[in-house]
Amino acid sequence: MLKYDIKDIKLAQKGKLRIEWAEMDMPVLRMIRERFKKEKPLKGVRLSACLHVTTETANLMITLKEGGAELALCASNPLSTQDDVAAALVKFYKIPVFAIKGEDRDTYYKHIYQALDIKPHITMDDGADLVSTLHKERKELLKNVLGGTEETTTGVIRLRAMAEDGALKYPVIAVNDAYTKHLFDNRYGTGQSTIDGILRATNRLLAGSIFVVCGYGWCGRGVAMRARGMGARVIVTEVDPLKALEAVMDGFDVMPIAEAAKVGDIFVTVTGNINVISEKIFSKMKDGAIVANTGHFNVEIDIEGLEELAKSKRIIRDFVEEYTLKNGKRIYLLAEGRLVNLSAAEGHPAAVMDMSFANQALSAEYIYKNAKKLEKKVYSVPEEIDREIARLKLESMGIRIDTLTKEQYEYLHSWQMGT
């Protein structure tokens, strides 16, 4: 009997249609699925996945199942689940899903435990909560695990810290490190979907507003680019001098967060770090400032500090909480400080997730085939996988590129020809 814990199985038909809509914009994953269906490279593999339960994730799960894997899926964030998609995966694709949008912390971790109950050979994570839970609380299952994959910057940071401490008990491929992931998913996906989430939640005009982006990694670059594209005046805050210099060269104002707090209308954190916007920073903000997070965890915003400053709060719109401070100023927190692009909108467009999830599928296959050769550390996606995904994406777009001539290849691989 199929085990699952979802909001409402009656939502399944709507979810199935949305899964099909996303699939049309995921040609690379479709090509991989067709091969997986024939070859069954994951036959006999038990795979536990902790990912955002979206239409794009659904297409990845379907691909992995076609490849022969036995699956269990839980959410990697309490607010990112699309309940109709969860229902469709259960009803039409017979995939166990443990995810409900808005679930509390206890339910969130109960669902992670349930996803681990299949005793996985491979883990697939987005934020490393599955891996950390497995290492801390389900250690008896570690003997089964061949390896894992990690989707996002935050998770890779956590896993590299585990590896450095000698705590990581199996190899993990950092999917986020793939060029076909972070150059596109992080930049174009996060950029568009974050703006989408903010606009859906607030319906505010970005043109002419002062938009503060905290962090100028690939995700921050994308958010800053898209905010400027909609007419906002963008300020970047950074702690890394190289990234700060790049932001300046890209034409953005750069200043400390304490200065930006005094002038900003909209703030977005995208650093992967804790308390980027602290109680001290909240107290400097203008009346009506809007604060959102698009990093993986809500720790980037000091919500407890905001609670301390506030004399009252209320829900004024879906995903918009108004905090009235003791000095009379109002601060608007979006989506409880969680990923605004997945909480208040639908997450990244399918076209970029196509490449990210192609990396996930091929990395899972790679782990299964090469597990005995891999050490207990974090690996980058093999270059041949990265390049193959880029090739397939170009092919699906009808774009052709040049190839090196024999003479050019020899020149690039020789030191003797010189000038």
Automatic annotation (TrEMBL):
InterPro entries in alphabetical order: Adenosylhomocyst_ase-like_sf, Adenosylhomocysteinase-like, Ado_hCys_hydrolase_NAD-bd, NAD(P)-bd_dom_sf, S-Ado-L-homoCys_hydrolase_CS
Keyword tags: Cytoplasm, Hydrolase, NAD, One-carbon metabolism
Gene3D superfamilies named in the record: Adenosylhomocysteinase-like, NAD(P)-binding Rossmann-like Domain
SMART domains with a match to the protein in the record: AdoHcyase, AdoHcyase_NAD
GO biological process: L-homocysteine biosynthetic process; one-carbon metabolic process; S-adenosylmethionine cycle
Cytoplasm as UniProt keyword: yes
GO terms for cellular component: cytosol
Cytoplasm found in the keyword field: yes
Cofactors named for this entry: NAD(+)
Domain annotation S-adenosyl-L-homocysteine hydrolase NAD binding: ranges: 186-347
Entry's cofactor comment: Binds 1 NAD(+) per subunit.
Main location: cytoplasm
Chain residues that bind substrate: 54, 126, 151, 181, 185
UniProt-annotated location(s): Cytoplasm
NCBIfam families assigned: ahcY, PRK05476.2-3
Biological function: May play a key role in the regulation of the intracellular concentration of adenosylhomocysteine.
Homology family: Belongs to the adenosylhomocysteinase family.
Protein name per the record: Adenosylhomocysteinase
Organism: Thermodesulfovibrio aggregans
